[in-house]
Amino acid sequence: MMKTLRRWAECRRRGRPHHGEILREAAALADAGALKPIVDPRRFTLRTVTDAHEAVENGTAAGKVVIDIVD
């Protein structure tokens, strides 16, 4: 947690131009295929959105949670 706080403080100190640098670096990594998004393997729907919220809230979700919107 201290490492995260130090990074946050460094970003605050450097200001918005530094955020642009970070975004450019992240975009280059994404373009190179070096980033692998972590997405929870479960798929939720609007009917099970409560389950999705609970998974995020209680920490059982692995990465990002997807909620499928189906007509």
From TrEMBL:
<dbReference type="Pfam" id="PF13602">
    <property type="entry name" value="ADH_zinc_N_2"/>
</dbReference>
<protein>
    <recommendedName>
        <fullName>Zinc-binding dehydrogenase</fullName>
    </recommendedName>
</protein>
